[in-house]
Design a protein that fits this description.
alpha+beta; 7-stranded mixed β-sheet; 19 strands; globular
């Protein structure tokens, strides 16, 4: 079915609602998982250890099996307190949700993007809900997020009653920058990574050759001054040789996940339906690519959006009550 269905799904995307209503057979993106070389990422040793059960990371430091180095993932456990999570969820659930694909619901705040034509429009973007401001302020205390300037914030709800999931994909590389942030709320979940085997024209992957990296292989921010960033292109160190490999990345409740480098550009990531066992809400954040920042070819266009992204408004009165982060 190519048309948009009442549940929000369209094309090959499905949820439990439209599968039952229209008799759609859902495509399995990871068939024969037992025959694949699966690994579980450990946020403490920054290695991926053989296995499928994501709770294996809790065995640290007494891991069993074989391990592989896996760069491009940063996890800060307990990024939020219980009280901060409660405050966020109160505000989020006081706002309306829009249906999305694959059983998700969303609240999106950011400019409108046409990824095929590479065009940006402000649309109705006027900043972010004020009750979320403290999350962006907390980014300042995370070294890997130095100089991070949010230009999109999206609340995504995953509910097992709808069979919510998200298909394997790479976030667009034309306008969304290197550091992809997820703040996980309400329940534990898993990000499953598989090697991307497609064409470089998809996801605008070819664009990463035209701008410098933000982070080095160790996740350290590269200075904008001096020679450190000259010809410093993004490292694709984790390029997989085995197309059957799977890396499972834990996303514990109230944690912060940052994906960058090869994990961002070489691997597709997804959330499997089987890993959504309770209601889960996440906040996803995006920054600009270098061409839209200071010194870039689209700096002036980027500045307009960055200025608006400094606004924080009351979701109760929808008036701007704060600026700057």
């Amino acid at each position: 079915m190519d048309t948009t269905r009442p549940c929000g799904c369209k094309g090959i995307r499905t949820c439990l609602i439209c599968e039952q209503e229209f008799g759609i057979i859902r495509k399995d993106y990871l068939p024969d998982q037992n025959d694949r070389n699966s690994y579980v990422y450990c946020p403490w040793c920054n290695k991926a250890w053989s296995g499928w059960d994501v709770n294996l990371y809790k065995d640290h430091p007494n891991h069993n099996g074989t391990s592989v180095n896996f760069s491009g993932i940063f996890i800060q456990l307990d990024f939020l307190s219980c009280a901060e999570e409660d405050r966020l969820m109160k505000g989020i659930d006081e706002m309306s949700w829009a249906p999305s694909q694959s059983g998700r619901r969303k609240q999106n705040f950011g400019p409108k993007c046409n990824f095929k034509k590479k065009r940006l429009k402000l649309g109705d973007f006027n900043g972010f809900p004020a009750f979320t401001k403290f999350v962006q302020e907390k980014f300042r205390d995370v070294e890997i997020l130095h100089d991070y300037q949010t230009i999109e914030q999206c609340s995504l709800e995953y509910n097992p009653t709808r069979g919510a999931s998200i298909d394997p994909h790479i976030d667009d590389c034309w306008v969304w920058g290197e550091r992809i942030i997820t703040v996980n709320l309400l329940s534990d979940c898993v990000l499953t990574l598989t090697p991307y085997q497609g064409d470089s024209g998809r996801y605008n992957l070819q664009d990463i050759k035209t701008y410098p990296a933000v982070l080095n292989q160790d996740g350290k921010v590269i200075s904008k001054n001096g020679t450190a960033c000259v010809n410093n292109h993004i490292s694709l160190e984790n390029s997989p040789h085995d197309s059957d490999i799977v890396v499972r990345v834990p996303m514990p409740r109230r944690s912060l996940l940052v994906m960058y480098g090869s994990a961002r550009y070489v691997w597709e990531h997804c959330v499997l339906r089987q890993d959504v066992t309770e209601r889960r809400v996440c906040l996803a954040y995006r920054e600009f690519t270098p061409p839209y920042l200071e010194g870039g070819t689209h700096e002036s266009e980027g500045n307009v959006i960055l200025d608006i992204a400094r606004n924080f408004w009351s979701h109760e009165g929808n008036s701007v009550i704060a600026q700057e982060v």
